[in-house]
Amino acid sequence: MNRADRLRAVLDLLAETGQIEVDDIVERLGVSPATARRDLDALASQQLLSRTRGGATGQSVAYDLPLRFKKGQNAAEKLAIAQAASALIPRGSVVGLCGGTTSTAVATALGSRPDVAEPSTRPTLTVVTNAINIAAQLLMRPQIKVVMTGGVVQPRSYELVGPYTDSVLAQITLDFAFIGVNGLDPKLGPTVHDEHEAAVNALMAQRAERAVIVADSSKIGRRAFASVAEPGAFDTLITDDGITTSQRTAFEEAGLRVIVA
């Protein structure tokens, strides 16, 4: 394993629990304690983690880890959510996808649909996204028409934000919008860490006939910095079976249809 791969592996380990010890790196990656410490120091210098005496923590910067370092978290749950989201979408629909790991999983599910593989003179689906990674992923599917918003790239999430993004979204309509979040509360609604991304997510939801929150159950009960919209702006929540009965009841009382994948 070269150094770049090893640093990525350290961040993957950190993403699992939010903290890591030197001994964990030694055991999991088979490196010396000195190498483990040097790797942690290198990542700390890039502000990708915070060093502690015996290891490191990601709590102070976990929200800001690049998307590629977070995609392994709750992967099975996100896959189930993505498949449930795809099942809602009829052929020919126009679908909005914001950035984030769960929305990326939805894009993967859309790209693997059997109807996307069928020959057609018209697009099987149209996907509108402000995430450059999602657009690049779906470009490989000729039956999916991909529309990108303009905007300024957020390097951590690969999302486009700003007035150019708003201008494009204001000129289109969507059948579905799937919005990923960092936190979800039945009273406060969905929240994300960045106010610019929150504004784009809110506008995408407004432009859709059906606005759907896609969030694994670890996000429930959490609060992030920026509010996306009131709970009434969305009609559906798709989550995994980690949601409790009381949580589900609270969201349903707030007017959300809850689909447990």
Automatic annotation (TrEMBL):
Cross-referenced SMART domains: DeoRC (SM01134), HTH_DEOR (SM00420)
Signal sequence region: none
Residue span(s) of domain HTH deoR-type: 3-58
Keywords: DNA-binding, Transcription, Transcription regulation
MF-aspect GO terms: DNA binding; DNA-binding transcription factor activity
Residue ranges crossing the lipid bilayer per the database entry: none
InterPro entries for the chain: Carb_Metab_HTH_regulators, DeoR-like_C, DeoR_HTH, NagB/RpiA_transferase-like, Tscrpt_reg_HTH_DeoR_CS, WH-like_DNA-bd_sf, WH_DNA-bd_sf
Protein name as annotated: DeoR/GlpR transcriptional regulator
Organism: Humibacter ginsenosidimutans
